[in-house]
Design brief:
There is one protein chain. This protein is about 15% helix and about 35% strand. Strand 2 and strand 3 form a beta hairpin. It is of the alpha+beta class. The chain has one domain.
């Protein structure tokens, strides 16, 4: 039996509104739904985007896909 191969991605949740960052027309939008959240390939990319768009703080969560 082979082991499952998962890839780690990162999603960002705004601390103040509890909304998730998502791609929206070549920009960044917000969604209340985790399944619509944008998935970042790297932690640094997620942090940089969150710092620009989440002014009161943010959470970064690792998800496997």
């Amino acid at each position: 039996m082979q082991a499952h191969k998962y890839e780690a991605k990162f999603i960002v949740q705004d601390k103040e509104s509890a909304l998730f960052l998502m791609p929206l027309d070549c920009d960044v939008g917000f969604t209340p739904w985790v399944h619509e959240a944008g998935r970042f390939d790297g932690y640094a990319e997620a942090t940089d985007t969150a710092a620009i768009n989440c002014h009161e703080g943010f959470f970064i969560v690792v998800v496997l896909q």
